Amino acid sequence: MFPIDKFDNLQTPFYYYDTDLLRATLQAINNEVARHENYVIHYAVKANANPKVLQIIREAGLGVDCVSGGEIERVIESGFQTDQIVFAGVGKNDWEIRLALDKNIFCFNVESAPELAIINELAAEKGQMARICLRINPDIDAHTHAHITTGSAENKFGIAMKDVQSVLEMAEQTAHIQLIGLHFHIGSQIVQMQDFVSLCARINMIQDELERRGIQIEVINVGGGLGVDYQTPDKQPIPDFRSYFNTYAENLQLRPHQQLHFELGRAVVAQCGSLITRVLYVKQGSTTQFVIVDAGMTDLIRPALYQASHKIENLTSSEPQAIYDVVGPICESSDIFAKTISLPRCHRGDLLAIRSAGAYGEIMANQYNCRSLPASFIKEEIDQ
């Protein structure tokens, strides 16, 4: 899987993207979408905005879900059509809203009554109509890490269930707003389909109430959230998209005139990316043996931020196994990739691969400790 002989001459740490797997994942998505009428996929750019990755996703025909003006600019630079862009986010800045209006994006996912008022005001300045979906917080526990759940009542995202009717009325009465749909997103790294079943039940209830009031909606956007296998990435490198899409087909009462939109991020790119790092030192502590590598939480923050677990492989040793804590060089005690894991005996200079790092890896890298951002390479570049 890894062209190790080509890695040895590259400066670590760096991200490596298996673009064969990325294309196979995108093909699997498109194959499943083709089995359902009126399903539309937007890639959640916040997962990975590497221009080379975005180009492949664009070639597969996906739209994009952006959460900042910078992401909108990035995807336009990458060749996406502006009518493929949805703009989400709880705190849209005025300049970002103006940018989206200027580019005539597909729609805004609106998260509050004050935001709705500002979008209307800025659209009025330009003499435009702003297409919107109202993001509703359905108050559903997605059984995932507290930092990546977004659909519970205590989360900052979306319009509370108790406020839906008043905000709907506001949208209907606002001169420069065109309400086209409803948006939902309950969290990330969800592996229990029952959570999506619960979302469908809540949407069905809301739709029934809207129809009783004579309100028809064109678009239902259910966000994303589908998780991946971090522990055994080679066992299921492509997520079970069939079960995911079938869950909505079987449980959501979609009306004949409606489109169902998805915003998949992690499930698209996580498994194709790995962080490649080199062993600097093997240090024996009083009770723990440490493998100190040249990558740190500045390059992959998920373990420090979410206590996330990534499979780690020693690419250059086939010696007997030993138990290590794998840690980085950052001056923080939380700069730990894994504790008490078994690896082939490690030595200075060994190359390690931290797997399933294609989502929320490179995109979240930072320059704490004045470190350089990690480089990135796609398979085609390495194979040349």
TrEMBL record:
Q: What GO MF annotations does this protein's record show?
A: diaminopimelate decarboxylase activity; pyridoxal phosphate binding
Q: Where is the Orn/DAP/Arg decarboxylase 2 C-terminal domain?
A: 15-358
Residues holding pyridoxal 5'-phosphate: G225, E263, L264, G265, R266, Y360
Q: Which residues carry this modification: N6-(pyridoxal phosphate)lysine?
A: K46
The record's listing under PROSITE patterns reads:
ODR_DC_2_1, ODR_DC_2_2
InterPro entries, per the entry: Ala_racemase/Decarboxylase_C (IPR009006), DAP_deCOOHase_LysA (IPR002986), De-COase2_C (IPR022643), De-COase2_CS (IPR022657), De-COase2_N (IPR022644), De-COase2_pyr-phos_BS (IPR022653), Orn/DAP/Arg_de-COase (IPR000183), PLP-binding_barrel (IPR029066)
- Source domain of life is Bacteria
Name recorded for this polypeptide: Diaminopimelate decarboxylase
Organism per entry: Hoylesella pleuritidis F0068
